[in-house]
Amino acid sequence: MNDFLHQLDRWLYAAWPGALVGLLILLTMAPIRLPDALTVAPLLPLMAVYHFCLFRAEALPAWLLFLLGVLFDLLQGGPGTPVGVSALQFLLVRQAILGNQKYLVAVSFTFIWLGYALLSAAAVTLSWITMALLSWRFIDPQPALFQYVVSLFLYPIFGWVMGRGRPRDPLNAPEARP
Prior knowledge:
Elements: H1 2-28, H2 44-55, H3 62-76, H4 85-104, H5 109-135, H6 142-162
Helix pairs in contact: 1-2, 1-3, 2-4, 2-6, 3-4, 4-5, 5-6
């Protein structure tokens, strides 16, 4: 029984990042009775992608992020919503983090938040430009800016909540003292 519980714990620990991104996608798509609520909804899935790619990148492989991004775009639906923009965002955030992971893991939360601010700004800008180019018309940037600002101020809360499992992560394990 002990081996089963140990294996179950290891499996759940490995599946948690992908499951949380999927859950946050569904939470973002939850029906809210406000007009244009989706256009200003916080970037919850992007927050989870950033956090877990930073601290547990092996748990979110590129193929899984691609599938989750396409699923997110398909669920958003609507006219003029290109499929693949969220997948591109997720993959670019993952790639940017993987290139700088060893520098970002060892810094204070303020710099981690700054990294999120820069990458999410790039992701929102990429999405806005892609939507404008594919629709061949100017799209008001105000909803994208509002979405970015809301996400920026919510990241410390979500980062703290998602970081509760981090002491088990080998990248964040305290140095062994002699």
